[in-house]
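Title: Comparing notes on inverse folding

I've been comparing how different people in this forum approach sequence design from structure. To keep things fair, I'm posting one structure and asking everyone to reply with a full sequence. Here's the target:
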């Protein structure tokens, strides 16, 4: 299962498409931020 499928299936089915997209983007951004922080700490 890829990440996008994981994000979409983890959202409530009752949410409107725009809510699902917004939550998916919020979650994706959080993952990106964690990856960047991890990368920065490994480079030190």
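Reply #1:
Here's my take.
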């Amino acid at each position: 299962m890829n990440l996008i499928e994981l994000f979409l299936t983890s959202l409530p089915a009752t949410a409107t498409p725009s809510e699902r997209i917004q939550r998916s983007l919020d979650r994706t951004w959080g993952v990106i931020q964690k990856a960047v922080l991890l990368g920065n700490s490994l480079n030190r």
